[in-house]
Amino acid sequence: SSGINAEWPLRPGLPITEEQITEMKENVTNIDWDVAASEERARRHDVMAHVHTFGAVAPTAAPIIHLGATSCYVGTDAVSVVERERKRGEGREKEGENSLQKME
């Protein structure tokens, strides 16, 4: 899975192009956390802050980024990403502990 929710409505009548999908795929990990924080302070809405932050790096796709996704849906995806990254961090910490134990 590409992680791009806009792919599912690729059917006649919806204003989504392959170029927009490609642009989102190319930038899905291109997150400027400082911009996101600034957008959230200005908009006072965490999901819309990230929609606009993503739109800044995927301008062709900006009009369709929120198409078909509710704030709840986007928020649930964000929680999943945070949890995955937390688990990856725990794995790195354990690797570091194992290295220290081997040295002792």
How far is the first residue's CA from the last residue's CA?
Answer: 43 Å
Number of strands: 0
Question: What is the SS-derived class?
Answer: mainly alpha
Largest sheet: none
Order of helices and strands: HHHH
Rounded mean pLDDT score:
77
Poorly predicted runs are none
Report helical residue fraction: 55-70%
The number of helices is: 4
Rg measurement, Å: 18 Å
Strand content: under 5%
Shape: globular
Question: How would you sum up this structure, described in words?
Answer:
With 104 residues, this protein is mainly alpha-helical. It contains four helices and no strands. Helix 2 (33-43) packs across helix 3 (46-57).
Q: What is the fold's blueprint, element by element?
A:
Elements: H1 18-27, H2 33-43, H3 46-57, H4 71-103
Helix pairs in contact: 2-3
What's a quick, concise take on this entry?
The protein is mainly α. Helices cover 63% and strands 0% of the residues.
